[in-house]
Amino acid sequence: MAVIDGTSRLRKVLMCRPDFLVSAAPINVISEQYTKPLDHDKMMQEYGAVVKAYQDNGVEVVQVTSGKKMPNAVFARDFGGDVKEGYILGRFKKPIRFEERRHYEDIMAGLGIPKIAEVTEGYFEGGDFAFIDEKTLAIGVIDRTNLTGVDEIRKQLEPYGYKVYAVKANPDYLHLDMCFNLVAPKLAIAYEAGLPEDFVTLVKEKGIKIIGDMPIYISADSVEVWTMPELFKVDAEKNPLCIAGVPADSFSDDGQLWGNPIYDWENHKKTNYAWWVYRIKEGIKLYDLLRIDHFKGFSDYWEIRGDYETANDGSWQPGPGRALFDVVRDELGELPIIAENLGYIDAKAEQLLTDTAFPGMKILEFGFYDTEGKSIDAPHNCNKNSVAYNGTHDNEVVNGWYDNLTDEQKAFVDAYTHRHEGEPITQTMLRTLFATVSDIAIATMQDILDKPAESRMNIPNTVGGNWQWRMLKEDLTDERKAFLKDITALYCRKNTFK
Fold it and tell me: For the whole prediction, is pTM greater than 0.70?
């Protein structure tokens, strides 16, 4: 049960059965929402499922029980924290949990795990305990852990070579593990809104990278439009004279009418693109990598009159092109930008992507509509500096996409991919995706699970009925896991997190 850095292979886990958890104790804003008795049968069923999941993956589960006087002992991680050398015994703040402390101390002694630190004056619960790297620990200071407790832990762990940081996280979150969890070396799942700036800085210093997304356009009622209307094509009342969108495409016969105000690029040029320099600068402050949506709009953009009802009533107009990014690069240096270059991408847009040297995106589904193999999204036209997908959340899943191809297109796909007799088309396309030279390949869960057309996640330019598909536990079979593992190894797609 001792760990190296929080991401080592899990071999043994301690779990407490919820036998005595009848109702949620009103000890925080979350539990106060649940006043009715808990569904005990459902709890036991879910507990059993978690135990089985561990055991099925070769993890030994040590199961303990509590008693009527300490029903919250089911939250077994709260009594302390584990490091390589042993465990830290915490100290609870709430009286309802006082008896758990000695209970778990006895359990750990019975398991032969040494106690190397103990909180006796302050407070500390295990939900606030997190690894950053092998010798760096973060301890949340929110509701159940205080600075006194952190200081006690710091003094006792220093002889073992550990650095301990107190993280004063957002008080809206009960524990640090609601905002931050290390899931692999150099990789964490984090919710930045819950974390203080100094902790985010520390995480970045430790080599953990965060990608943020920036839409090209902004809202008509944004503070920028109201304070700097001269940078947008709006009238005296700040109503859009021209709005953004795209003409008819495979997603919509009427095009996509986004409604965002169009930039007055001439006025941006007069300011030497100061607004964009500032916007990208602030984005880079927040994130390590910045994905800019609708990169096509910088080479040329679809302009629609503000009173038009469909996106087809518009025209292509020249964007700022390379000049904008030359200025931004002069001001900020090399730019960690990913360009979303999907949809209608002509030679002008491709040239801008080449000039900026930003990685773009490749959608293989688009690449097979042209049976002569000339599409820029065909696998043989992928380049290393790109992110490859069969389809994104906006596209059909592979099964639906293939079903809607013509016979000629299907024959081309089968021949191009060397599809095996009887091989599901999802596996064929996943093989092809992983075999591209693109630095990054991303697969959708629906395709991994071989789901039908009805599992499509989203249809752009539509309202209602989207984002409803859910994965079921029984869908992830051993066969599908084995296939994904095999192609990951075969095509050298294993993450290294360097």
Answer: no
